[in-house]
## 1
Amino acid sequence: MKKKYLSVLLTAALVTGTLAGCGNSSDSGPGSSSEKDADSASEGKIINIYSWNDEFAKRVNSIYPEVKKVSKDGTVTTLKDGTEIHWIINPNQDGVYQQKLDEALLNQESAAADDKIDIFLSETDYVNKYTDAEANAAMPLEELGIEPDTDLGDQYTFTKITASDINGVQRGSTWQCCPGLLVYRRDIAKDVFGTDDPEKVGEKVKDWDTLKQTAGELKAKGYYTFSSYADTFRLYGNSIAEQWVKPGEDTVKVDPKIMDWVKTSKEWLDAGYFDKTVKGQWNDDWNKAMGSKSKVFAFLFPAWGIDFTLKPNWDGGDGAWAVTNPPQDYNWGGSYVHACVGTDNPKHVKDIILAMTANRNNLLKISKDYLDYTNTKSGMAETAEDSKTYKSEFLGGQNAFEYFQPVADKIEIAPLSPYDQGCVELLQNSFSDYFQGNVDFKKAKKNFETAIVERYPDLKGGVKWPE
Amino acid sequence: MKPKRKSISYSKWGYIFILPFFISFFIFSFIPLADTVRYSFYEFYRSGIKEIGPNFIGLENYKSLLQSDMLKYAGNTFILWIIGFIPQIVIALLLASWFVDIRLKIRGKQFFKVVIYLPNLIMASAFAMLFFTLFSTNGPINSIFMSIGIIKKPIDFMGTVFGTRSLIGLMNFLMWFGNTTIMLMAAIMGISTDIFEASEIDGCNSIQRFFKITLPLIRPILAYTLITAIIGGLQMFDVPQILTNGQGTPDRTSMTLIMFLNSHLKSRNYGMAGALSVYLFIVSAILCFIVYRITNNNDPDGSKAAARKSKRARRG
């Protein structure tokens, strides 16, 4: 009898054990807090930088003057004074980066000095979450000894607003400013319009109505205007009038601009102006749409998109692409550099932020090497003039800054909320089914409502759709 | 009076040896498990980087789960599981009975055993990633079909409910049929060859032999396979998660229960996730119980019921 009970117990133990894998318990952090606090006056030996790709790492490694050497796998950068920068990189997709970062931020206080986060990066989509005054994760720049008005005086104002908390305290700084352009294939332009001159092509895409006509011309020759409906999202999504979720409220408010996007996208997709096989961005099909075999005429990209996304995916030679004005001025992305509260290397952090985001010469060098549109008003005015130094081989000798600059001057950043990334991602996913004809409009709306509460349980008020 | 200690008991060594397992089980499995159940009664999640809760809210989480689409996801999970499981068990039974059949004299048995087991060695997520690339609209499968001339336009496998579900079922089948085959082979080999011989002498054909001898005699192992497959099926996660990018597309028709749970964990919603885990636990406990009863009590000879009957007969 005893044996039987034991076997039942063992079976139960096994079953519960297997199922316990679903549960998540991760609140045990190392508890060595006080001993290291004593030597916080002197700088630590390791600078931990959290990011979602190697964009910032690449720029630091090649531009920051204190860099001595970079390890072979690129995860460790050694500075001249022997301090090591450790790059902790987690992909952005599916919120992985933020999960890891949040976990680390929660343990920040109890972490050993060398394990503390010193710098972390955030994207415009979720910068608001980290600059939040109450959360106090990103250090106000003034506390580091950086004076935003003077030290960062040459930066574009909208980048400074974006990185500020609700009280207007700036808690981050960026080296880039992301005005977007329309990047098109020269060969397709020649085939369809008989010219690849950016001025003339610019005329053809100058606003949505003209672009729609142009899309018809492209279609007649068998080309797609853009690869997917997600490509045009930023133009609508970043010009919304009110934030997705207002501070203190628990209702998601969908802007009429977003519904415009839904309407136009469906229309364009059904008309065959998008490539139906490309669903959304950042996937294999999308990458292939940038290859030489693709029939896609243009992409809507800011500077980083051209260098970081388009260039690696293009398999032909240089000079096949060109930029021109977009149908609507927009801004997409931007990586903000934050000093993390509790850092044990404040001096290094200050120096890195200043060197990478405020030093005009360094920024111009980044612009030259990486085609980044950098965060210096005076510097960018110079690049727009100086077509000799800043011409891009990839764009066939074109000076892209000439086109970036007017867009940058007109950017007004859409009001942000901490829920932006989830809202944007989930809305695109939900309506993706609608575009492809899997669900009707009503169901897509409902799916978004379901998904948003799953992601953000505190948004109890549901979703308010425009009339 | 006899001395108390007549024989030396070694049993304490047994307990000492299994102690490490129980200690680690207690720390790493039981405490988190109890915590999961505890948190399921709390409102406890993170908004941005601010922690909300834990506030005790009773059965609120359970209630709101019932109001959500949980049952639909349970249905999805079941469908995805059954699509993979039916071919898996059929093929595995077939292969197992062929492989152990002495009269068939299959050569290279060992080789085939390794080959059919191989897909199980690949990580499920890698396998899903592979299928994702293979079956994408611009992927190799479509280009092969197009160059042969079977189809004119690329098939959008992952854009249809049927396509996505079949792919997930196919993957689960490929990954697990080898494992099941080997388990069933072991079971069949455990059957005494005398019985097979006797049945042959009595003029039993191979189909009769399979249904009248092999199947009834491997019932305990079949039950075990079924139970593990059910529990595995309930926990189906990585294949659909990777294949659909965590969205359960299209229209959430390939969203499984654990994917649902995972989307709660994105906001670190321990309360809701805990409640869902408790539901899952109850469901799997019930399923296990049912399967256990079915497979153990209907056996006309050798089962508990039969034993009870014969006992009664003897007594009477």
## 2
Amino acid sequence: MKGLKYYFCLSVLFLLAHATATAQLDSTVTLGEVVVTGHSKVSAINRSAYNVVAVDAGTLRNTTMDIGQALDRISGVKIRETGGVGSNTQVFLNGFSGRHVKLFIDGLPAEGFGAAFRMGNIPVAMADRIEVYKGVVPVELGADALGGAINIVTRRTANTHADVSYSFGSFNTHKANLSLGHTTASGFVFQLNAFRNYSDNSYRVKTKLLDLSTNAYSTDDYWFKRFHDTYHNETLIAKLGVVNKPWASRLMAGVTLSRESAEIQHANLMKIVYGGRTRSAGSIIPSVKYDKYDLFVEHLHFSLTANYNRSRNHNTDSLARQYNWQGEYRGKTTKGEGQYALSEFNNHHYFATANLRYQAGERHHFALNNVYHYFTRKATDAAANAETSTAASFMRRANAKNVLGASYKFEATRRWHTSVFAKYYAVHVTGPVNTSKTSTAVYEEQQRAFGTPGYGVATTYYLTGALQLKASFEKSCRLPSERELFGDEVLETGNAALKPESSRNVNLNVTYNETLHHAHTVYLDAGFIYRDTRDYIRRQIEQRYGGAFYTNHGQVRNVGFDAEARYVYRNRIAIGGNLTWQDMRNREQYAPTGQKLVYYNDRMPNNPYLFGHIDASYTLFDLTGKGSTLSIAYNFRYVHRFFLTWQSEGSTIVIPRQRSHDLSVTWALEDGRYNIAFEVKNMTDELLYDNYSLQKPGRSFAVKLRYVFFRGK
Amino acid sequence: MNTKQLLLCGLISGMALAVASCDKDNNNTPPAGKGSFVLSVTGESAEYLMQVDDPGSGEVSIGNNNQQLEQSGYTWIFNSNPSVAVGLIYQQGDPGIGLGYRLSPDATLEAIGAGFQIPSRFTSYGFFGDYAITSVGGQTPAGTTATDGVTFNFIDLKKLSLETKPVVRTQNIAGNGEQATFSGIVDMGNGEFLTGMVLSQPRDPNATGGASSGIVTYPDSVWVAAYDASLNLKRIYRDGRISYSSGRFRSQYYAQIGKADDGNVYVFSGSFESTTKHPCGALRIPNGGTAFDDYYFDIEALTEELHFRKVWHITGNYFLLEFYNDKEPSALGAATKYGVVNMSAKSFKWVTGIPAYDQITGTGLPMAYGGQLYFPITAADPAIYVIDPASASATKGMTVTGATNINAVGRLTNG
């Protein structure tokens, strides 16, 4: 009961605190018109019938955050990091993660962008806004997203601008950012984005020490400084094009070049430490985008986007050494700290998206969208090794996927509009299959095809100008991958009879948003979600069959609430918070082999289910001259403890409760042209873990300098 | 303002409801068990250790476990003197964390130390004196391109420390140009241990299947090496009556050598290689002997042409054999058929009273105790079957509900 009271108080606090991130969106803080243009789009998206949250990244540009950290502030979203700068970042959206949540950049699936260009290493400054679609995904984002989609929209403006920033901070962390854009009077457009992150990630961790002479671990935990965790990444995005031509409303060609390089400090248990393992990755992504408004007839819009992603991932483990946390090592008799590897994966992705939109009169909107995705991979391992590779490892694997979507939106009245949509997912895979009946494997390239429909509806109604109701539903799915259909040829057998994983997603939202007396802006949002997910594709091993195989099994139900509240007073005070609670439980009663499951109705393990966020800021105007602002912002993050595995099995391992406090002070001069920001993260130096055993950084400091040049038309 | 208040009330009550129901699942976990028998069980994915009084009867829930382990997939072995359980693991690509347990004076399961790191993978393991030993072949010694290295780890059972021995080179070990992968560790009790040798050409770097051995040029002979504690090769037992002594599964080499109660060592061969002319059989090294004697047992003649891959000693001259389900054995083949051999009487019986072979989804490390073999078998809820060697009939013992497999059963004493 004590705990219950605590959370009740917490939730009331959240509500009374009605405050920050979203309200800022609708406020009129001016840091150049770039931000202002963002606002209308963000609120238009938030007002759509979908359960969508759009965050204006403009307000976060003076921070050192990456996209992942910005997402972490959104209700229903939890970002889990495995360490410091450049570490693996996993997004949980209403309990869905991994292959169930699709990430898009400017409407293009980010699947093929590679490790070098991902949520955890793209600075938030690169984005104009971030859209999070919970459970129901519009046809424009064509992908088999079971649990939702995240779309990062990069900055795009017809104005001339330059935005340069540099930050440095604890653990020898440096981040640099450059954004340039110019459009000539004749309609020639030039855009350039570049960024670099570097960190030693030399923060201290608490763990056990390996005695190299006995190979035994210490009983006690000690503090150690990370010594092999240097990370850096560099990205350049250049776009050239034309706008407002008779034959093209907009035509842009561009290329994204990115690379990263990281030392690997430890295994998935922190006490297993490395001193020589590294990984690196690189991507080349040329792209072209064509838009034509009023094609043939008025209100018929056509767009075509195509890109090719080539990514390379390289892992090296060739030192014949064994390390401990003091950085000491001793020689090993064989190569490799873990398993000797010099492996390289080359992935090739091809995407093409065509979109046709038509508006008939004031009330009828039609859209047709098709996404084609072709993926092929080839692996090479210079240290081909007994455990990991087979002849089939080096054979071609290809996966072609097509998602066709059609939607119709009807605006019955100004207050009420409804969208219905349908999608058809198709996949065609090619890969090696073991056709041998004996112990000697014989591989043959085979092809398989697969298709399934999906559909949904979203509607919204305004009770008053300030009070909005939303309801949406989608039957979504995830198609089996080529590995699930084919197996890995040696230890796994594929299953051509697999069904797609499917989910029925329902969302209900009530939003109240009003500004009173031109001074007090109040934003309240309450959401209810229901997810009924079935036919999970699972890997199964049974002695009677020898190797592993894939099967559809499992049913999970998630009933959740989230609430957000914000209050803004005249751009000076902003306070807000959100709280997410989701009751995600296993609803499968029997194991594939027939016996009763003890964890029937258990909460899904290793999945944060109660978390919240509070932020508050106070801004002083004209303190150091006209056009200057000084703001202080505070941020609090809470994650309730959760179990690593099923509770009814008697699991005792938990990921403990997490509380972290961040504080920043930003001083802006000349209407935001010159900015300097001081940040302290994890102020109270808490031991933070998003994942079992993997400690995140303690208290850190950073200074960020930023210069913005802006000339509007 | 009314609408706003209404909304606020709604929100607060919604939250309160949510919060009220969310602590409901912090129910009391069932009490952990007591007893000198230790089980390792797997749940949906995690591994747990349990203590039970009598594995020969009753039912227990996985929720009564004593401890959840950080990693899962351990190979457990139980030693009697000193009485310890050792958990070995090597995760693909990462070193594993080995564990040791003993029974405290008040009969609770007690970890010895905080674990030890296992820096190399292993395909064979066993006890030798005060050590548990792991070995893996096909290794490339630092500074070479050869693949004939065998890495031994010696785990001190008293201190739970691990020492990696210098690589043993096996090129031309038996004088025929072949290199060796070792299979099984059998303590001779005289400062030496025996290990079966799979002699082969170097592994083809492009070969499939994950094995450390290559093409077997001489599939019609058996070799067994005797090493001392310093890994000096003392002698090689060799014979042409059976094929090599090792059961194969994926990259593993299962031991097929066992010591009977009278000190005689039986060297079995499951005739894994399709090229061998020999049927599955066994030879004998008499207690303390330096060569095979003239004992020969054609086991395959009694087993419907099925080949076996694992061998466990039960009591006296009785051994349990695990057979591949198909007549042609393969490194990925299913193996869920069981029979008992009496090595002195040269008799064989299929085990009765256990689930049908096509219902068995998993088995675990058995325990020989009180003249019987306690064998974990999973077919629906996992259970321990108690096999009487003379009749080869089994009765169902303890069932562990909620588990997906019983990985091992063993006994610890605190005397």
